[in-house]
Every structure is written in structure tokens, then in C-alpha cells.
Design a protein that fits this description.
The protein has 293 residues and is mainly α. The protein contains 13 helices and no strands. It has one domain. The structure holds iron/sulfur cluster (SF4). The site of iron/sulfur cluster has 14 residues, from helix 11.
């Protein structure tokens, strides 16, 4: 298991290879599985992710709390955030909504945060991938994202029940941010800085789903946190560095998660889940099976 991003970056710099190539070397050495086999498996996950986005965009099954939001944002266009973020956010919310109605998604790193990475990498493919071997590049992006997730799982947690939403949606955004830096041709160290800055923007984020359903605030958080990850990728590509290294930021996230009250860790006993409006929503769902009757 990968235990430190620092080691990945050091190996990449020593051998003058990319972030995902360093991950493949380390993973292959530890698991005994060939680099080609690991890459092929990740290509399959990429194909699964593509399918989930396609199905999610065509999905018409309604969620229980949230109305469809991806199409609304697409119709609104780039607005102030810009086309890239709007498209990434719309896709992220569509995939997260699809998860909420039991659609088959890639839990990267979890089902609740499943929209963030596809939102980010497929927006990159659409806006920045023309003329490139995007299957190959996006496979490298998933390997990069996966490595950040693996280190996070080892050093902290990826579960909202253990660490709050910082550990789920926060981790997904950090993973995606590192992947975007790789896709843009940034250095392995810049990928680590992007992930560190993204994590720092979500530290302490509670897990407080209304009615215990992975909808509110989960779906919008998928749509919102892509923006953090994209901006942090741009910051890292501009040469801005995290003063605290990624591994230590991940340690902090884990520590904050352990210090969080259980009411803020997926129990629906605190935060947004106990607001008066949440109580009304839960009551309505109990009576009618969905919001609004
Ligand atoms: S609020 Fe909780 S259940 Fe919802 S996405 Fe975040 S961690 Fe998952």
C-alpha cells in the first residue's frame, strides 16, 4: 500500500518520470502485478466511469430530495465561474444524483463523492483534450488520483463516518486536483501541492446528510468541490506551493476527523441534518416517499 505521496514524488523526480509512472513502479514492486496489468485494470475503471457519466446524463429517475441540477447549470452556461468549472460541476452533480437513485457508478473514492473525479477529468477531456490520446492520459489521471486516495486511506480515512465529508468529497476533490495537474503537464510535486491545497480548503467539513440519504448536501457538494480542486490545480500550475506538505495535510485531516463529534460523522444527528427544514423534508418523505408529494 502506498503510504506517502512524498515517496512517489521523490521517485518521479529521481527517475525523471511522471507521477503515474512512479505510482505504477511502486505498486508493481509491492503487489507483484505487472505495470501493464495495473494500467489495463485502470483503463477498465476509466471505461466504467465513462459509462456512468453517459448513463447519469440520460437518467430520468428522480432523487427523493434534490431536483435535477446538472441540466440547469448547463443551460445557465459558464456564468462567472467559466465553462470548464460549470461543465465539471454539472457532470459531478449528475453522477452524484445517479448514485442517489442506485445507478452504477465508480466509487472514487466513495459512492457519496462519486461525481467529483469524473466531473473534473471529463471536463478536461472536453475542453483541453482535443487531438490527444485522452484514454491514455485519463488512465494516468486516474492512477494519479488513485495514489492520492490510497495514501489518504492509509494515513487518515476516506469514510464520512470516520472523518466527515472532508474525507469523502474533500478527498475526491484533492485526488482530482492532482490528476488535473498531471493532465496539464505539471510536475509531480505540483500535483502534490494541488492536492494539499484542496484538502486545506475543506478541513473540518462535516458529514451531515439530511435523512441519512446521500443527497442533501452531498450532490451539491460534489458540484461545488470540483471548483476548489480545479482552482488549486491552476494555483499549483502557476507555481504556488502548499507550505504544509500533502502527507502532513492528510495527517491533519485524519486528526480533525477523529476530533469531530459523532453527530457530524454520517449519523444525521447534527449540522444540516437537524435543521427545521431538514425535519420537514424527512417528514414529507415519510408521508409521500419524495419531496413535494
Ligand atoms: S455529507 Fe456525508 S454522506 Fe454526504 S457526501 Fe459528504 S461524507 Fe458522504
Amino acid at each position: 500500500m502506498l503510504k506517502a505521496v512524498e515517496k512517489i514524488v521523490a521517485l518521479a523526480e529521481e527517475k525523471n518520470i511522471s507521477f503515474p509512472e512512479a505510482v505504477l513502479l511502486l505498486d508493481s514492486k509491492e503487489s507483484g502485478i505487472s505495470v501493464e496489468e495495473i494500467r489495463a485494470r485502470m483503463r477498465e475503471r476509466l471505461a466504467d466511469m465513462r459509462r456512468s457519466v453517459r448513463e447519469a446524463c440520460a437518467n430520468t429517475i428522480p432523487c427523493r430530495i434534490e431536483e435535477p441540477m446538472g441540466a440547469k447549470l448547463r443551460a445557465h452556461g459558464g456564468g462567472m465561474a467559466g465553462e470548464f468549472i460549470a461543465a465539471a460541476s454539472a457532470t459531478a452533480m449528475e453522477v452524484a444524483s445517479y448514485n442517489a437513485v442506485m445507478g452504477r457508478i465508480v466509487a472514487a473514492p466513495t459512492a457519496g463523492s462519486c461525481g467529483i473525479i469524473p466531473g473534473m477529468i471529463f471536463a478536461w477531456e472536453f475542453f483541453r483534450g482535443e487531438g490527444k490520446d485522452t484514454d491514455e492520459l485519463l488512465t494516468g489521471a486516474l492512477i494519479t488520483a488513485g495514489a492520492v486516495g490510497e495514501v489518504t486511506a492509509f494515513r487518515a480515512t476516506l469514510a464520512g463516518a470516520d472523518g466527515g465529508c472532508q474525507a469523502e468529497c474533500g478527498a475526491a476533490a484533492a485526488m482530482g486536483s492532482a490528476a488535473l495537474v498531471y493532465l496539464e503537464g505539471g510536475s509531480p510535486a505540483a500535483s502534490a501541492h494541488a492536492a494539499a491545497m484542496t484538502f486545506k480548503s475543506v478541513l473540518g467539513l462535516a458529514c451531515d446528510p439530511v435523512g441519512g440519504l446521500v443527497e442533501c448536501p452531498c450532490i451539491k457538494r460534489n458540484g461545488i468541490l470540483v471548483a476548489n480542486g480545479i482552482l488549486c490545480a491552476d494555483m499549483a500550475l502557476a507555481g504556488i506551493e502548499s507550505a504544509i506538505p500533502l502527507d502532513e495535510v492528510i495527517d491533519s485531516m485524519g486528526q480533525i476527523g477523529r476530533m469531530m463529534a459523532p453527530a457530524l460523522r454520517e449519523t444525521s444527528q447534527g449540522g444540516l441534518a437537524v435543521t427545521p427544514t431538514a425535519a420537514e423534508i424527512v417528514k414529507r418523505i415519510g408521508e409521500t416517499g419524495k419531496l413535494g408529494g
